[in-house]
Amino acid sequence: MGSWVTSGRSKWCADATILRGMDMTPRRRVVSTVLALLLAVESVVVVSAAAGVALAQRSADHPLPAASPAGEVLAQTSSAERAWEPDALPSATGSPAIPDAPDYQQPKPVVRPAQPSAKAAAARQAQPSAVKPVVRAAPEPVVRAAPEPVVRAAPEPKAASYAGRNHVWIPSLGISESVAFFSCTRSAPPENYAYRWGCAGTNNVYLLGHAYGVFKALHDSYVSGRLGAGMTVYYADDSGTTRIYAVRWWRLTKPTTDASWAWAAQAVPSMTLQTCVGANSEYRLMVRLVQVG
Q1: Residues 192, 275 contacting (CB under 8 angstroms)
Q2: What is the pLDDT of residues 138-170, one digit of tens each?
Q3: Is residue 220 within 8 Å of 288, Cβ to Cβ?
Q4: Which distant-in-sequence residues (6+ apart) come within 8 Å of 263 by Cβ?
Q5: What is the pLDDT of residues 189-213, one digit of tens each?
Q6: Count of CB atoms situated within 10 Å of the CB of 88
Q7: CA atoms within 13 A on the CB side of 246
Q8: What is the pLDDT of residues 235-283, one digit of tens each?
Q9: What are the C-alpha distances in Å from 44 to residues 34, 47, 51, 241?
Q10: How far apart are CA 276 and CA 222, in angstroms?
């Protein structure tokens, strides 16, 4: 009996537990629903209160700061103007509604200059910048006094040496010739030399030469009128003695014996110079000199 009761109680307990679980399930659902409704109501109350507070705050006057941190200037909102309205929210089916409050200003787009591309920047850096030329005033020329020329005294000409044997010099005509002997009995014509003729008399050194050759300068001086009295001649004889002669006069004659006065003996030491003149050498120029040294 006792065992049956124990087993029966156990069985009953087990059945009651099942029944209890079956009975509690609907109750829990009801409680959960009620709690959810209470939370929803509380949320609505809280939201409404917050909305009222926000509405009250938005309805109050709020002066704008002196400088907006975002850089935009908004219009000041007054309590007399229309506050926030729910119907200003965008509709579910249409396009967003734009607030028509008079204090609303559409923000102006910020226009920034276009940044050059990397290629353009590199090309700009590669391009040499135009550098204005530096214009400097030309320096004033330094004027230096020209150095005074050094005047050197001309060296005194060396005394000409008229020394030798059988030689004649006429410095003013540039004549300097050796003298050969022309015999009085010679039949061959003279060559282009300065000769001393052996037919001349005493005190008469008689020298002759061709007008085209050794005595050309003497011929030209007569034709040009440069022949003048006082012209000096230096003569060195066969002994090496040099004597100086000066021109006294001259005469033009035919080559005949009538001109024997030219080679005649002279009273004082003298000299006679002879050369040809004329287109066909038809005249003889006779120049008489006397010894002066």
Answers
A1: no
A2: 777 777 777 777 777 766 556 678 999 999 999
A3: no
A4: 197, 199, 200, 201, 204, 206, 272
A5: 999 999 999 999 999 999 999 999 9
A6: 13
A7: 5
A8: 999 999 999 999 999 999 999 999 999 999 999 999 999 999 999 999 9
A9: 15, 5, 10, 167
A10: 11
The amino acid at residue 44 is V
- Helix (H), strand (E), coil (C) string for 163-218: CCCCEEEEHHHCEEEEEEEECCCCCCCCCCCEEEECCCCCCEEEEECCCCCCCHHH
Residue 220, number of CB atoms within 10 A of its CB: 13
- The answer to whether 206 and 182 are in contact (CB under 8 A) is no
Report d(CA 86, CA 93) in Å as an integer.
16
Residue type, 280: N
On the 0-12 / 13-18 / 19+ scale of CB atoms within 10 A, 289 is: buried
DSSP track, 65-108: PSS-TTS--PPPP-TTS----GGGSPPSSSPPPPP--TT--PPP
What is the token pair recorded at 25?
Answer: 């399930």
H or E stretch including 7? helix 2-59
- 222-244: buried (b, 16+ CB within 10 Å) or exposed (e) per residue? beeeebeeebebbbbeeeeebbe
